[in-house]
Amino acid sequence: MEGSVGDFTISLTKKPRYVVEDACTGCTTCVEYCPVEYPDRFNQGISDNKAVHIYFAQAIPLIAYIDESCIYLKEKKCRICENVCQANAIDFHQKPEKLQIKVGAVVLAPGYDVYDPAVKEEYGYGRIPNVVTSMDYERLLCATGPYDGEILRSSDKTHPHNVAWIQCIGSRRVTEGDNPYCSSVCCTYTQKQVILTKDHHADAQCTVFHNDVRSYGKDFERYYQNTAALSDTRFIRSYVSIVGENPDNHNVILRYATPDQGVKEEEFDLVVLSVGLNPPADNERLAEMFGLELNQYGFCKGVPFNPMDTGAPGVYVSGAFQGPMDIPESVFGASAAGSQTGELLDYRRDKLTREREYPEEKDVSGEEPRIGVFVCHCGANIGRVVDVPATVEFAKSLPNVVYAQEQLFSCATNSAKEITDMIQEKGLNRVVVAACSPRTLEPLFRDTLREAGLNQYYYDMANIREHCSWCHSKEKEQSTIKAQDITRMSVARACLLGPLQEIDLPVNKAALVVGGGIAGMTAALSIAEQGHEVFLVEKADELGGLARRIHDTLDGLDVPAFVDELAEKVFKNPAVRVYTGATITEATGYVGNFVTKLQSKRGETEIKHGVTVVATGSAVYEPSEYLYGQDERVLTHLELEERLAEGDEGLADSDSVAMIQCVGCRNEEHNYCSRICCGESVKNAIKLKEQKPERDVFILYRDMRTYGLMEDYYRQASEMGVRFVRYEPEQPPQVEAAESDEGKPVLRISLPDYVLGDDIAIDADYVTLAAAVVPGPDNVEISGLFGAALGEDGFFKEAHVKLRPVEFATQGVYLCGAAHYPKHIPETINQAYGAAGRALTMLSRDIVTVSGSVCEVKQDACMGCKACLEACSYDAIQMRKTKGGPKAVVNPVLCKGDGLCNACCPTGAIYLKHFTDEELFSQIDAYADQGDILEQIDAAVNQ
Amino acid sequence: MCSGRVDLEFILRAFANGMDGVFVGGCRLGECNYITHGNYHALNTVLLAKRILEHIGLNPERLQVAFMSSGEGLVFAREVDKFNQKVRELGPLATGEGADLLEVKAKLEAVRQLIPYIKVSERDKLSTPLKSEELYDSLFTLDEVESLLEEPLSYYIDPDKCQACGICARRCPVQAIEGAKGQVHVIDQDLCIKCGTCHEACPDRFGAVEELAGGAEVPPPLPPDQRSLPAKGGQS
């Protein structure tokens, strides 16, 4: 990299693929003929691939390349692939290519490397065949894995039915070759693997040997409970050693200890090492090249309070190079890095964009339906279960179907091209793709139709993956029949589809940010820095939110100073208007054109804005347990933090402090982990020890969830003499006022000790409670105002956990901070920039397109009863006086296409385009037709 | 499209097509993908349809409604498995109940004809969100459905009162009213969907459209040659 921020020149070397990208069709004939078998790196080397191959089933682009195992490249012999390729795509003359790219900013997203357990003899990996890593196992579970989704063990290719997972392999260990930090993701991915194992073999026995179970992510606690509740599934809290292999059956012998049974040995068919995350292998080279600093573990160090900023101007980082993190966090960070890049390069936004051009749309509304059906194999996802060729033949037999074919991946670029070509060649005027859920790929296929000059609504998707092959993988014949049924229903509907036009709406360039805590302020500033007016609305009289009660972070950063600085930046930014002491009284409108009314210190205000960011934060649980509120020596962890900051004398003099974790959460009422309390308590414990080393500090916990690099502080606290005592929710600690042996008044805590196997009593001067983070008190109201969904636990629910983690299903409304789920300050900042980034994708447009699938009223049939008007929550329907009485009319811009009005209308006058009664009846009837045929067959057989 | 889009007719049509069971899935109650909370409407439609099934001698358990989020594939699978099991136990439609399939289909068809009337009559109940499961059973009673289906109201134009103003004919959403200038208007009872629009539209000063109680005999229409009104404004 050369140059400076805003004007970098990046030099790259592009390795030769030996395949011409534009010519290769991905047909894989070359792969079939290639004589070189070579361990398949994508499948962890468990199965072989060829020297010429496609990297993996969903690779983009889905075309072949030749790797270094090729014998022509090594010995100048062979060239079979060149001869068999009908597209003439093989080119052995390709040389490494030097490229130079001019960019204004750089986002580093190199990901992580998987910990290699082979570095330590004791893990048995590579030495004992039936010991695999979790990444190996991930591939074994996968439908496109080494055995097409069959779990086979390496020694004898049999199905393992008794599988053990060992957690924290390479993580949370200070020994040579291991990582001291927690890898953050392994507890939950292991649970996923247990669930998938049970899906593969319902009778499988699954055993997870773990330390703390760190289900700290959103909805992870329930996921853990669901996993643990599976039949024949054990979670055992124990260290484990791998003793060796039973030579007779190649089973793996593990030694572990339980409180009731002591040390024992047990045999397992297969052992999975839940390996952790390493920084990317070339981290040092990256650091040097881009001028950034690494932390002691080799992850990007970053700037305090801004995890995306590497410290090098114009260079940002997202994903696990920041430190171990899971997919949703990585996606927050990716949007966040995008937003920061946007701040930097806003002055030349849109300079390089090009308008997409489509061919002119043909009017085919007068033509007989000519339907083309494309049936997707989805690699093995569909093809392994459903007989795809038979389904294609079946489709050809359906009325109005003039063409049908199969495709390996209908979503691949070349397949889309094939659809476009066939539309033109065969004169198709309707297309059905039998593949996956329309949720993911319908937009792509609609675009394909536009490319071919057809109206995009002449398209229907038959979901034969989620609705068929995935859920009936064991019933292949029945699945094929069902896939054909689904296809027939789609074809019937396709006959009735009509062309629909979409509406372009202008986008108001201003943003409303609801909530003035760290999340809201960060999002507001990032949006403002990209040239947009921002209205920041805060309920309280000052900005800062719950962070005002935090004094520092675990790594010692000064939170009050940061919050003050942030608030100052907000007030100084001319594009941000702040409303404190504010209540929102009304919110109407739609994406790009919202109108919100509020009452604040400034009086009544009406705001027009194009997007809304919900950043309303959370609240703290008010404990009713452990004498809180009855005995003044019982504090919450935030009260402890406040007293520590104030230098409270009583606390300073104390000889013993006990902290109780998980107060008010991980229970029936709040069935989730509050995520931040373990770190909070460790932070306070270290401070108490620093203040007075001889003081006894206890942390009574269920699982210590100091995930990621926080693990260091857990260890530090332990080394400083903080005593960690585990309790079970069935036998929680009992707190009572008592007198110590010396006659001093104390709080006595009694609980069973699982290590000693006996009851213990702790005398403390103070008991502090890790009170849960609970949903904000106004969540229900905010949810109603902005159409922002709430989850089961009362926090706001994102549209999709991984794909759309900072936005709501309601278009133009975004989410960040603790309103989404409890999180630490850097995580909040990560997500706040992420929400800003997503909001910008809307604000940076001039228009937003509204779906053509909206309601319309057949005037003659309308009886003017207003049932539709009452059913509509979007105020999209109004009554109009006509000679024939009052009639309903729909404002298509406001209509969101839910169709409730259709079901309420007595006469069928109002209809949702693209989902009309006729279209849906056609599907219901098309399904029945087959039933009639079957009945007739049954009758014939019986006679 | 919301689960609230599921029309009573979809359900009845599926059964009339010989389906042994119908499953309606929606978002969790109280958690709407839109902001409409149409899933409550779907619930009520299903509760009503269950009573209708019961009324015509079908087991209401052939119809199932369940609510889950898009992220709860496992819940969906579990619910469908349970329902599938249930329907297998119930056996084929009608025969499982010891009824005649053709007869059942005829009854379903008759109910289908009454859907507009059902929607008008039960409009308020259909759109009332039920916040607790205890309320499910009592929303619609068997007696209520029986009188709704067996004794529907009828509308009739009193030829002595009709002034041939034509308002009712213009307002009728299904064009079931015959009439011309100076001709007494007549409702075609076969086309009429019993929505009551004509009753409401007929000017109070005429009050010609009568609402006849359930089960009442509708007087036969005047023969076409007797429909002319006497000319107004005295003799000529």
Q: What key phrases describe this protein's structure?
A:
heterodimer, A: 943 residues, alpha/beta, five-stranded parallel β-sheet, 24 helices, 25% strand, B: 236 residues, mainly alpha, Alpha-Beta Plaits, two-stranded parallel sheet, two-stranded antiparallel ribbon, 10 helices, 6 strands, 39% helix, elongated
Assembly classification: heterodimer
Unreliable stretches of chain A, pLDDT < 50, 5 or more residues? none
Strand order of the largest sheet of chain B: 1-2
Report the mean per-residue pLDDT of chain A as an integer.
93
What is the H/E order of chain B? HEHEHHHHHHEHEEHE
- How many extended strands of chain B? 6
| Tally of DSSP helical segments of chain B | 10
- Please give the alpha-carbon distance between the first and last residues of chain A: 81 Å
Structural shape of chain A: globular
Helix content of chain A: 25-40%
Précis, in short:
Chain A is an alpha/beta fold and 943 residues long. Chain A is built from 24 helices and 47 strands. The mean pLDDT of chain A is 93.
Structure description:
The complex is a heterodimer of chains A (943) and B (236). By secondary structure, chain A is an alpha/beta fold. Helix content of chain A is 28%, strand content 25%. In chain A, helix 5 packs across helix 6, helix 8 packs across helix 21 and helix 9 runs parallel beside helix 13. Chain A is globular, with a radius of gyration of 31 Å. In chain A, 47% of the residues are buried. By secondary structure, chain B is mainly alpha-helical. Chain B folds into two domains: 148 residues, no CATH class; 84 residues, Alpha-Beta Plaits. Helices cover 39% and strands 9% of the residues of chain B. A two-stranded parallel ribbon of chain B has the order 1-2. In chain B, helix 1 runs antiparallel to helix 4. The longest helix of chain B has 18 residues. The chains are: A alpha/beta (943), B mainly alpha (236). At the A-B interface, helix 22, helix 23 and helix 24 of A face helix 1, helix 2, helix 3 and helix 5 of B.
